[in-house]
Design brief:
Chain lengths: 487, 95, 486
Amino acid sequence: MSMQWEIVIGLEVHTQLSTSSKIFSGASTSFGAEPNTQACAVDLALPGVLPVLNRGAVERAIKFGLAVGAAIAPRSVFARKNYFYPDLPKGYQISQFDLPVVGQGALTIQVEALSGNAKPYEKTVRITRAHLEEDAGKSLHEDFHGMTGIDLNRAGTPLLEIVSEPDMRSAAEAVAYAKALHSLVRWIGICDGNMQEGSFRCDVNVSVRRPGEPLGTRREIKNLNSFKFMQQAIDYEVQWQIDTLENGGKIQQATVLFDPGKGSTHAMRSKEEAHDYRYFPDPDLLPLDITPAMLEQARASLPELPQAKRARYTSEYGLTLYDAGILTASREIADFFEAALDEAPGQTRLCANWITGEVSAQLNRDGMEMVQCPITPRQLGGLLKRITDGTISNSGAKEVFRIMWSEGGDADAIIEAKGLKQVSDSGAIERIVDEIIAANTDKVAEYRGGKDKLFGFFVGLAMKASKGKANPAQLNEILKRKLVDGK
Amino acid sequence: MSLTNADVLKIASLARIAMNETEIEAARSQLSGIFDLIAEMQAVDTQGVTPMSHAQDVSQRLREDMVTEADQRELFQSIAPQVEAGLYLVPQVIE
Amino acid sequence: MLNSSLAQLGAALHARKISSVELTQLYLDRIAAHNPSLNAYITTNTETSLAQARQADLLLANGNAKPLTGIPIAQKDIFCAKGWRTTCGSKILENFIAPYDAHVIEQFNNAGAVNLGKTNMDEFAMGSSNETSYFGPVNNPWDSGAVPGGSSGGAACAVAARLCAAATGTDTGGSIRQPAALCGISGLKPTYGVCSRYGMIAFASSLDQAGPMGRSAEDLALLLNVMAGFDERDSTSLQRAKEDYARDLARPLNGLRIGLPKEFFTEGMGSDVAKAVDAAIAEFKKLGATIVDISLPNSRLSVPVYYVLAPAEASSNLSRFDGVRYGYRAQDYADLADMYEKSRAQGFGAEVKRRIMIGTYVLSHGYYDAYYLQAQKLRRLIAQDFADAFKQCDVIMGPTSPSTAFKLGEKGDDPVQMYLSDIYTIAVNLAGLPGMSVPCGFGSGGLPVGLQIIGDYFAEARMLNVAHQYQLSTDHHDRAPKNIGV
């Protein structure tokens, strides 16, 4: 690369709202039913049917707006977006155009550093708007005698389309934003976040420019349903655009798809004819008025948000921003942390260390999410208590944790059954230390001669002799006294 | 106002209505007449007037989030032009 | 029996002087005899109708009957009725068997009425002469060479020719009132939102409203009592306490203030129509009414405004007819786009295509503000004119249509001339107000003339009272056409 390029990325994210029924009909939204068994008369756009708006979808949209500090429109309007497509039964999609329910907001994200020595940083991404609309059905391209099959079960599933400003400057930032949004919508309980099932789909607008110049022409990568693919797709697309421009080419505005197999993007073949959606207010739906009471109800139902929690964890608990970030990566993790703390009050650092350390590592190893964690916060809290009151040593605690993970049981029972209780009887420890000193006179002499590093050697021997059960603090103190003073 | 045949063709294409040359020509002349009729309203000063989308000034009623519809696929697909394995069939969609 | 009012028919059924099966059979026989020449019905279903009549007879026998139980009603073919072919006058729905009932149909079913058949109409209710129907034109029973009006032309014809006891219609720009006027019957378009639009195939959603068509205002009141009602499946259905629309029928008209808009009495109106309307106004004065001169200055713009808004909504409403899930699909096509274009080109008639094209154009990029938005603003001004007028009067009167029934084919090639025949009715739909037409005499060639009565929002009971008192002192509504065997 001869000169620097600046990458400019904005996202449009379609989140399926977790209502039981559709946005404009009483058909079920559950995933995986037999084709067209959840497409009712309204979803099929039979002649004469009409839409009625689902309260649950409106409530979820309001919650999202409040969570990103956005203005909620006291009056918003549904519009028809007209185009023909077989998975769009009415020939128009009911959406919002001029007056969306959620106005400008913002989301603060944490971006992990790419290179080893750079630090993670915070960034605020502006949200342009979020609006309610209906999902389309699905086209199944398996061969039906050269035809396409249409399943309209998904048609009418409520969507909140969340549009960001082009504020992101790298694939890492785009992925961090998408992850933060993904976490947030699950956090506030408006979307199940299941990306395999299409509950959270990202369209990424990518352009490049020389720093300081106006925005370049963008291409939109459609329908990314994994963060890994998003990273790959953006990386490929950015390089493609830079190569094209550096070779004297021009970028044409286009909609592109990412092929995970090839790791590349390609422009869609279908209708690049100029879209003319002929938006107009849907005469079948009246203006949506959001009353102060509805706003208040939504506000009261919102949990403490990740950003507020992060601030509290750092200021109140003295955790690092990094640890606070991990603990608020999802509502499940934060809930786990706080429930474990209830069990072991005051042990914030220890608790944070165990969750970001042992628990996370085990989950990773077993390929699990926090919801699948075999250990309850209560079990972990019980273990932490036994660490702080000196009943078990650190190594003993790791052993208890291992057993807890694979076999279950609470800390006290495991300590008892496995005889892991720490020896705090100073007489017993003194006897062990005396034996070690007696058996290693040469090393004792070296130590006393100034080789301080040998202290660890003696600790190791003593621990081994106590089968790991010696209270480390006590052992240290006795060992030091006897090695230095010989008493 | 007068429309061109290209205008008519573009509208017909947006509306997904096939038209041959004769039909385009006929439509062009009739639509032009209708737009002359409509043109009368464009001269009126409507500055500051709020557009009226609905006959009544009422706000949208909300439906409770409940599943009320049962599966009626068999009935609904009995009137479909072409179905197979519970799917509506259409000529191949190309993305 | 054929000239009995609905109340008289109800009484006869209750007294078991006639059964619903006999009454239904009587009308079915008349349809068999006269429909071949009149073409008022697209579909009848003898067995289904008689089965409903038998059910009604059971209710009557058990003492569980309601006012319309057992009475045969003709339903406009725009209402989905489960198991009935529902075509909306279009080839694209030629074989469409509705899988559900419209709210209006449910209301009649719950009342125990008999569905006598589906009446002919302009395709997708787009027309003022019934000539755009795929199932052929309807003849006016008063003059077989004349149109019945439209779009509810089949319904108006069936009522006038005594091929049903009463009928339903829908009115987007005059589709109940204008054919009622041209066929010499009574018809009412209620306030927008009084009857549910659920299951009524949409033309222009913000203007469409169902209403009753019958031989007298009294009949209309009984019909509206059944048709009106809140329906949670239509977001624009109004939540209001149930009304008895017949409650004010007997009220004297002393002190009634009738507004006569000067814009409705211009040279555009035929002299025979003017004469009949003037005579009706004189009759109202005799009944104790006073006349107020009013003005609706923006009503002259209602035709252009309507021909932007209605086609815009229609172009979008009719996109669902794509040959994928139901309805007509072209036989041969190259690909998906071709399938769409051919199915729609072959399935829709010329007028429907024309309006889809107008609507597509006015909504398209770069034209929206000049056409659609401007029309919506003018719509408000038109509605405001009425609000101002109703500060001075209780009802507004004028002609329903500028002329009596015109000849079949007379306005064939000029859509603009056809559109102007709705010049007096359209403003009412734009404002969402209730409007009705009642027979007020006969013009040249002995063809009926209709008087339009417009009320303020929810003034249906008062309007029916006004019309009923007029009908008590006149007999225009009782006259029947010749050659229909009555």
